[in-house]
Design goal:
Layout: H1 2-33, H2 42-49, E1 55-56, H3 66-76, H4 88-101, H5 111-120, H6 127-143, H7 146-156, E2 158-160, E3 163-164, H8 166-174, H9 183-191, H10 196-200, H11 206-218
Parallel strand pairs: 1-3
Antiparallel strand pairs: 2-3
Helix pairs in contact: 1-6, 3-9, 5-6, 5-7, 9-11
Pfam families: Transgly (PF00912)
Protein name: Biosynthetic peptidoglycan transglycosylase
Pathway: Cell wall biogenesis; peptidoglycan biosynthesis
Length: 225
């Protein structure tokens, strides 16, 4: 019994040390990325490990079309500028929608939560990942301002197979820089974020185009940081 307890104690402390090391690494990267371009993420690493190529070019906030920033906010996180990483009203609404549907039909994740996942975690769903996502979200909100969070989100989001960031997406789909995107183009690109690899090959999909129209109608409501 004593031997088993000793082993469990060692495992516990090993896990604690790993957790501490992980959060130190996250904090260090967030400090660097607060002012420096972000040209990598866990999603990009996973894509490369799977044998794929990644294209991504960092652009600053002022070099992203206003319409793209508006589209991201109205589509992904309408209360972005007013919450501190978690939209409690959105979470409650998502829970009610899921209960009504009998499945996970809505997530309620904010832009900051999605950024935390994209930068440091994977798409695998588990309570452990959600816990890590929540803690990293708090760190991001505490260390970065909203403008930096939105800039990073648009620069690391996936817009197709190996296509990361709004700049590469604008070039790939419309042969122009992100600064020159118009309202239609911005709404379409942001509409793709729910299933970018599928929509890359199905740009005329009815659900995609319907979401594009909804985003365009709401775009004027966006409050930018």
């Amino acid at each position: 019994m004593t031997a088993v307890f000793t082993i469990l104690k060692r495992i516990f402390w090993a896990l604690m040390m790993l957790a501490v090391a992980f959060y130190i690494a996250v904090a260090g990267l967030l400090m660097v990325w607060k002012t420096q371009p972000i040209n990598n993420s866990m999603f990009m690493v996973a894509h490369r490990l799977g044998g794929g190529d990644v294209t991504q070019t960092w652009v600053e906030y002022d070099n992203i079309a206003k319409s793209a920033k508006q589209a991201a906010i109205v589509s992904e996180d309408s209360r972005f500028v007013s919450h501190h990483g978690f939209d409690m009203d959105g979470i409650e609404a998502a829970m009610k929608k899921n209960e009504s549907a009998g499945t996970v039909a809505a997530g309620g994740s904010t832009i900051t939560q999605q950024l935390a996942k994209n930068l440091f975690l994977t798409s695998h769903r588990s309570y452990v990942r959600k816990g890590l996502e929540a803690s990293i979200t708090v760190m991001i909100e505490g260390m970065w301002d909203k403008k930096r969070i939105l800039t990073a989100y648009l620069n690391v989001a996936e817009f197709g197979n190996g296509i990361y960031g709004i700049e590469e997406a604008a070039k790939y789909y419309f042969n122009k820089p992100a600064s020159k995107l118009n309202r239609d183009e911005s709404a379409l690109l942001i509409s793709m974020l729910t299933n970018p690899k599928y929509y890359e090959k199905n740009m005329s999909n009815k659900r995609l185009r319907n979401k594009q129209r909804i985003i365009m109608r709401r775009m004027h409501q966006a409050v930018l940081p």
